[in-house]
Prior knowledge:
Elements: H1 2-7, E1 14-18, H2 27-40, E2 45-49, H3 54-66, E3 73-75, H4 81-90, E4 93-96, H5 105-112, E5 116-120, H6 123-129, E6 135-138, H7 143-156, H8 170-189, H9 193-215, H10 217-220, H11 223-231
Helix pairs in contact: 2-7, 8-9
Amino acid sequence: MQEVRRRYREQKGFIVFDGRPDATRGVVEVLTAFKLISRYFNGVKLIITGVHDARIALELKMLCKRMCVEDKVLVLGFIPREKRFEIAVRAKLMLYPSHVDAFSYAFLESLHLGTVVVGYRIPALEMYYGNVSGVELVEEGDVEALVAKAVDILEKGVEAIEVPRIRSWGREIVFALVSATSAVLGLVKEFKEANRDALAMWCREYAKKVENYIDTLDLLLDDEVYEGLVELGIIKK
């Protein structure tokens, strides 16, 4: 990641959205906000990465056409991780109005690459990134505030971008367990499909975060700790 940052120092005039392209990750808000931002900056572009499904990519392109921004939005399919880093490091900012999240590696990677992030103030993102320089959080659902922050950053930039230290997984585990427990208690008290679906959603999200954490552990821990975990056999190189 640091090598990518050294190779690509110059930022370009585009915004990036790096996340699962669905309603929970705020892809509709991204497109709405971008359309409003483009009124202030006519030449700005939006790049959407992480679209692995051809049907979803087509739907996004059709939506862009209906919103009259099809010539300013690039929807990418699967791209290698390093290529994703090369895009993020050259972006002016990342829009990330997610409604459901945990630790968010998209946030962490963007900050490591020196790119500002603007997103919603949901509990998990507030917990981990609320006081980090280079992160701007607005109230969930406030697209106007999202646009205002993005426009301000595009006009003035930021003084500094801070790379957060990884403190502990304890808080995230508690957060996931409380969420799952709440759903389970709801099932026990009174069976509802909504409770069942909530439990399934949190289990899927937590499993994804653990998998991503293991995959990127070498980027998040210092070399001494990482090598110690290898020696203990907890992780494998």
